[in-house]
Write a structure and sequence with these properties.
alpha+beta, Double Stranded RNA Binding Domain
């Protein structure tokens, strides 16, 4: 399993912003990317998480505990 596989990543449509917004709540408190379609937004989100993991590991830093679970936290994350 790759390190990024431990972290849930979500993309949802925002009526307010009129675009898709990508979230990874174990890493960031809000949306970290946006786009016109969910597939490219998800791909960008995955790359952001991979880059963050690579950066932290290269500096010898630990990774955050994967705590968010879709069945428990999805409504909170997308709000």
């Amino acid at each position: 399993m790759k390190p990024e596989d431990r972290y849930h990543r979500f993309v949802h449509w925002s009526d307010e912003d009129q675009c898709y917004i990508g979230y990874c709540p174990d890493w960031y408190s809000g949306g970290v990317c946006h786009g016109e379609d969910e597939e490219s937004t998800y791909a960008e989100l995955c790359q952001i998480v991979r880059d963050e993991i690579e950066h932290r590991l290269s500096k010898g830093e630990s990774l955050p505990h994967a705590a968010v679970r879709a069945t428990r936290d999805l409504d909170f994350v997308a709000a």
